[in-house]
Amino acid sequence: MKEITITAKWADATYLDNNDNYYDRISVSSVSGGTANATLSPFAPAGTRSKTLGNGKTVKTGAILSNLLSGDVYEKAIVLVGNNQNFTGNKSYGGSSNGFTVMSADFDLDEEPDYSLIWQLGNQTSRYSICPIRFDFLPVIEMGMAMKEDGSTQYYSLGCYRPLGHFEVTETSLIHFGQFEFGNDKRTLEAPLILNGGIYDQYTKGTMGMGTADDKINYIIIGGNVRIPSFTPGAHPSDRASAVKPTRHCALNVMGGNIDYLYLTGNYNENITPNQDNPHCYIDGGNFKQVAAAGKEGIDGDVFFNINHSVIEEFYGGSTMDQSTGNNFKTVKGNINVTVDNSKITKYCGGPKFGNMNLDEDNPANNKTVTTNATGTTFGVYYGGGNGGTSYVQYASTDVTETKAQNPYDWNGGSKGNLNSYTPGSYRSTGKNYMADYEMEIVNSSAGTDANKGIFRTYFYAAQFSATNTG
Hints:
Layout: E1 12-17, E2 59-61, E3 76-80, E4 84-87, E5 100-104, E6 117-120, E7 128-130, E8 133-135, E9 138-142, H1 143-146, E10 161-163, E11 167-169, E12 173-174, E13 176-181, E14 191-204, E15 217-231, E16 251-263, E17 280-284, E18 287-294, E19 303-308, E20 311-319, E21 336-341, E22 344-349, E23 370-375, E24 378-383, E25 389-403, E26 427-428, E27 433-444, E28 453-466
Parallel strand pairs: 1-2, 1-3, 3-5, 4-6, 5-8, 6-9, 7-10, 8-11, 9-12, 11-14, 13-14, 14-15, 15-16, 16-17, 16-18, 17-19, 18-20, 19-21, 20-22, 21-23, 22-24
Antiparallel strand pairs: 25-28, 26-27, 27-28
């Protein structure tokens, strides 16, 4: 074997302080009755740092946006040597040619970040792009958690930005997105999403600037210290034309993390015509309530799972909904291949939860198969295919952003929650099923400083008995 020499390459670092602002005052535009700090005298200054560090490195000042670096995220770094308050102000955060890691210094050598990035990306519902970026060894704090403009009714949340390329949060960084939108029609680079830290309340394609079915994400890694209640790589609930787009199913690598529900497709919008591709999912560690190939978006191709050292309450190698007709089908059209080792699964269905695999009695070569290979694994209940039962399929939804007022949101109105159109047990002749269930969802606005606004959604489901036949 030929000798291999590995040489470490240190990133080129820019050291950044932010002595233009103070702990309790920051330059943001006045909105919703707030008092712009230009009319106020700052007090309790955060202090300043000398212009050079002990090793002779120059310290720059100002916001990250005015000190962007260009290059690879692993070769360029912005190192914070002071808390950095950063308001982007409704504009894109760099371009595709930019790229860097942002992290904190650790002067006291206690293996904890000394400084924080206090951040707000925008103050309206428009979405903007963010350059290739990697957050490492850094708490990223929503500005609303750190300060409040005098007299303002705003909540300065982080906002909603869409990656132009490589986007990574490491296990030693914390960030919170209300709604993380991975899609971006301005994205020209094939690059990964690596989410090993942070909290992502919702993971969706997005609503604006989504005019593409190719998201140019070549692989996804999630795990470590990440918290995602429901991983749903698919469309946003909105029915606007720019949102009803399919998602390219790239390789998904899951290595632990805190993820309750894991899907290989979207689980918000039922009006999607899937791409023709073959999703691959590799799970190595983790504790899940449910893992399934398809949610409300189907798969036009084969599915591959490789699972190791994991604990799963319910596993479905196919779809969780029984709708095989129409362009917006919910099933898996191809073969299902599952390899599971050294794991514990309480309920296992190698195929779909509901519905049949493709069966062509006239031409058996067109038949689709379910294949499970398991070693060292404990199953509570095992179905080689599925177990059938009552299938609930979404047939309608609402998605409304409204200013909160003293009067409650109108969940019943036709232009709002539309619950008046829901009559439990009523037969739906168009779908040959029965109105049987609904969900109500309230989400804090993820678009920066929408004053007093909330997002209200309803999802309607119809029921039908569904057997499972895997041929």
